[in-house]
Amino acid sequence: MNKNIILSLKNQWFLPALLIGVAGAGCSSMGNKSGEKIASTGPTVVTTKTEPKTIELNQSFQPQQPATVTAEVKDFSSKVTDVRLRFVRVPMEIRMENIGGTTWKADLTPQQIRTLAVGGETMSYEANVVARNVEGMVAVSPSPVEITVKTPELTQRAG
């Protein structure tokens, strides 16, 4: 009899746990940011985006279109004063500009893009968005943004 009571109690806990797990998995796939944690104090880098996905250079090593990285940075307790795009394993850091609300943008200059370019290659780099508030608290993007630079073959230019 005691064995049946124990099994009954186990089953009572199993079903609600299963339902909570299924509901949580369903909510996380809806495309909202409920899974992202925003700090109650200090800045949080919520999202990052690169446009275009691949920066293509022409034969003169000029970008075919402007290249930008945008980030949404949220801070509930203090003003965000400085946001930078800091490359991983490359000695380059670009100051981002607040373009309104929580949106910050970095425009990569043609010179910065040429610094990343390798003739005839498609190079991918990672960079983190680093945000600082007026109190000196710092946050880093949860995952790096990927910046890809595609360069034409140099031999085609020499003809």
Write down the CATH topology of the largest domain. Answer: Immunoglobulin-like
Low-confidence stretches: 1-31
Number of domains: 2
Q: What string, H for helix and E for strand, traces the elements in order?
A: HEEEEEEEHEEE
Largest β-sheet summary: 6 strands, mixed
Strand residue content: 35-45%
Question: For this structure, what is the CATH class of the largest domain?
Answer: Mainly Beta
What's the count of strands?
10
Structural class: alpha+beta
Rg on CA atoms, Å: 23 Å
What general outline do the C-alpha atoms trace?
A: elongated
CATH architectural name of the largest domain: Sandwich
CATH superfamily annotation of the largest domain: Immunoglobulins
